[in-house]
Amino acid sequence: MHLYDYAKGLVLEAGNHLRQWMTEAIDIETKSNPNDLVTNVDKAVEQFLVDQIKETYPQHQIIGEEGHGHNLTTLEGITWVIDPIDGTLNFVHQGANFAISVGVFKNGEPYAGFVYDVMADTLYHAKAGFGAYRNETLLERIPDTQLAQSLVGMNANWLAGKKITPVLMPIIRDSRSSRAYGSAALEIVHVATGQLGAYITPRLQPWDFAGGMIILEEVGGIATNFVGQPLAITHPDSVIVGNKEIHKTILQEYMKPHEDFLAPWHEHYQG
Length: 271
Ligand code: IPD
Ligand code: CA
Ligand code: CA
Fold this sequence. Notes:
Keywords: Hydrolase, Magnesium, Metal-binding. InterPro entries: Inositol_monoP_metal-BS, Inositol_monophosphatase-like, Inositol_monophosphatase_CS. It is an enzyme of class 3 (hydrolase). Its EC number is 3.1.3.25. The protein has helices spanning about 5-20, 40-55, 90-95, 165-175, 185-190, 205-220, 245-255, 260; strands at about 30, 35-40, 60-65, 80-85, 100-105, 110-115, 120-125, 130-135, 135-140, 150-155, 175-180, 200-205, 220-225, 235-240. By secondary structure, the chain is of the alpha+beta class. It has 2 domains: about 5-140, Fructose-1,6-Bisphosphatase, subunit A, domain 1 (Fructose-1,6-Bisphosphatase, Chain A, domain 1); about 145-270, D-Maltodextrin-Binding Protein, domain 2, CATH 3.40.190.80. It has a 7-stranded mixed beta sheet, sandwiched between helices. The longest helix is centred in the first third of the chain and has 19 residues, at about 5-20. It is globular and about 50 Å long. The mean pLDDT is about 95. The structure holds D-MYO-inositol-1-phosphate (IPD) and calcium ion (2 copies). The site of D-MYO-inositol-1-phosphate has 11 residues, from β4 and β12. D-MYO-inositol-1-phosphate binds near residues 87, 204 and 208.
């Protein structure tokens, strides 16, 4: 079977399991802080995906949020980048509005992206160079928009007295309004469908953006860090996702004046 079709089927199958597992007992643990949660379901979904991929493609590499492949030394061949549940807080508190996110890379280059909104049963997917889809519907290329006429995705926590708050506040002030969805992968696909003009966040891990980034690029959107560099699956980064026009405006008019403050990847991105 073609790798793309295999990956698509696998993500849907993981979603079926997830819907079943969430009807059983959910154990919640904290990770780096009391608000950083992980559940047995996050771990089970990642383990399911890893076991299946390893059985079918033993030579493939896998980076998964819940512990797999964090010390990869090469991106040669196929690398899967997996977030078993993106939006764990939504999963725990809402039982909805979370996604399985999978990015597949060939020699470090985008090959295919999948973001599955599990409870809405909506799969966003793209094979690089062949367009992006919401389920079986081809997504149109996103139009350019102005900040003043756009909704911007941003988590309000970043506007609550963080070191980076003074950089981000003017963007929200000058936008039409802000929205926060609680799942980076879903926010990136909301930009890919044109529902959001942009999504901005100071710190994401590769598994948060890998799948969505590939979908976004297929509709003409762009993703970089706060100083305009491309995102890479080898390290965390600050993230601006948008249609080309709004991305350019945010970068040049709102980030560039703070270049010295933003350039080094240091503690003010940590919250
Ligand atoms: C988180 C979500 C959230 C974003 C955080 C991520 P998780 O992922 O994407 O929206 O603001 O930075 O860590 O922990 O739910 O997989
Ligand atoms: Ca995540
Ligand atoms: Ca996660």
